[in-house]
Design brief:
Layout: H1 8-22, H2 26-43, E1 48-54, E2 60-68, E3 82-83, H3 88-97, E4 99-102, H4 113-121, E5 126-134, E6 137-146, H5 155-200, H6 210-227, E7 231-238, H7 241-248, H8 250-267, E8 274-277, E9 282-288, H9 292-308, E10 324-331, H10 339-359, E11 365-367
Parallel strand pairs: 10-11
Antiparallel strand pairs: 1-2, 1-6, 2-3, 4-5, 5-6, 7-9, 7-10, 8-9
Helix pairs in contact: 1-2, 1-5, 2-5, 6-10, 7-8, 8-9
The structure holds guanosine-5'-triphosphate (GTP).
């Protein structure tokens, strides 16, 4: 075949494709690359035109885009993860000169026997590959095969394929930067949600902490006002916990706190229930409910559940087992009630109930 004459329409086509690529969204980018290699393939009357990307250290390459003339076989599937050990001469040429051009693969030097064998396997007679270089980094290459006859690659062909290569290299670089940005953004979001979770979870017991309780109270009070429903707060305090620590040690004390927290979380499972560690050995429960009786029933369940944990507490003046006292308060907030004031009232009154429960001998429930 003879080299063709300079072709201005190809330049125009490239210029159009490159304008589209510059303004393209991620999805369109791949189509544009496919169109660019198809345009070049058709222009030089090639049998196959393709893009390969190298691994970071240029030790392997994979075929990412392929255009084949009608009737020619596609090779993209069997050209994945090709290593420099498979084609050492080719990799060496690409690394050194960023191109690999041969008019007749039969004339390749003796040390290119692997390459010759591979080209013969694919029935290739002439090959041109131009490196995709962006920011001085070799990202891959764009290439063309002639299958039927050998072909004399012209200066014009090389210039055109270099233009295509330039365009694809810049696009790939932009895509890689975009992917890195997306990945960084994903990592940041993940770190943020972990931080958010850490900031609202009590490290020892794994249930919500005081900060999360404050947020939940605000949300629940607003909802109760909006929906005209009631809201109950229970404050649950472990009895004689100081003497428990003194008798069994701080670690056993920690273990007991975790067991009580687990028991609370097991009982309060509705989506509108909320359990938090309120202070050292004190827990809080928020319930959306229409009746104080329902709140009282839950408080009784909690009292029983803690007793049933059977945590020995020989030094307790109340019971030889770990027990809790519970203070409760129920209210249907008025539609015009001030949120902060309502929250304060819920907590203060539940606290008054707790104070009463302690005063009445502990291991009991008092509603204010
Ligand atoms: N092991 C352990 N102990 C804690 C933790 N936080 C608070 N405490 C202990 O809880 C105890 C609370 O003591 P007090 O406030 O005197 O209450 P109490 O002994 O339970 O007495 P009453 O509530 O009146 O029955 C203190 O000894 C604290 O050290 C914790 O995270 N781990």
């Amino acid at each position: 075949m003879t080299p063709r004459q300079p072709n201005t329409s190809f330049d125009q086509l490239l210029s159009q494709l490159s304008t589209r690529l510059i303004n393209s969204e991620h999805a369109e980018t791949q189509t544009c690359i496919a169109e660019a290699i198809a345009a070049f393939g058709a222009y030089v009357d090639a049998d196959r035109c393709y893009v390969f990307e190298f691994s970071e250290d240029i030790s392997s390459m994979s075929n990412t885009h392929e255009w084949v003339r009608d009737g020619q076989s596609a090779h993209i599937d069997d050209l994945q993860g090709v290593t420099s050990g498979d084609l050492p001469y080719f990799f060496e040429q690409m690394r050194r000169s960023h191109q690999f051009i041969t008019n007749d693969v039969g004339q390749l030097p003796a040390n290119a026997e692997n390459e010759k064998a591979e080209f013969q396997r694919e029935s290739i007679k002439s090959v041109i590959c131009i490196g995709l270089v962006a920011n001085n980094k070799l990202l891959g290459f764009v290439g063309c095969d002639m299958v039927h006859d050998t072909y004399q690659w012209s200066e014009e062909d090389i210039r055109h394929l270099s233009l295509v290569a330039n365009m694809i290299a810049n696009t790939l670089e932009r895509e890689q930067t975009y992917q890195k940005l997306i990945e960084t953004q994903r990592q940041l979001e993940e770190a943020n949600s972990k931080l958010q979770a850490l900031a609202t979870i009590d490290g020892l017991t794994g249930i919500a902490n005081r900060r999360a309780l404050d947020e939940a109270l605000e949300k629940e009070v607003k909802r109760a006002k909006r929906q005209r429903t009631g809201i109950a707060v229970l404050l649950i305090d472990i009895d004689h916990f100081k003497s428990f620590n003194d008798a069994y040690g701080h670690l056993k004390g920690d273990e007991a706190l975790k067991q009580v927290a687990d028991a609370l979380a097991t009982i309060m499972q509705r989506s509108t229930d909320f359990v938090a560690r309120y202070g050292g050995e004190e827990f809080a429960v928020i319930m959306s409910t229409d009746s104080a009786w329902q709140a009282l029933r839950k408080a009784n369940e909690i009292l029983d559940a803690v007793e049933n944990l059977d945590i020995t507490h020989e030094r307790s003046d109340t019971d030889p087992y770990l027990t809790v006292s519970i203070g409760g308060y129920f209210e249907v907030p008025k539609a015009d009630a001030e949120v902060a004031g309502t929250i304060q009232q819920l907590l203060n009154n539940a606290d008054m109930g707790l104070y009463q429960a302690k005063d009445d001998g502990r291991n009991c429930i008092r509603f204010y």
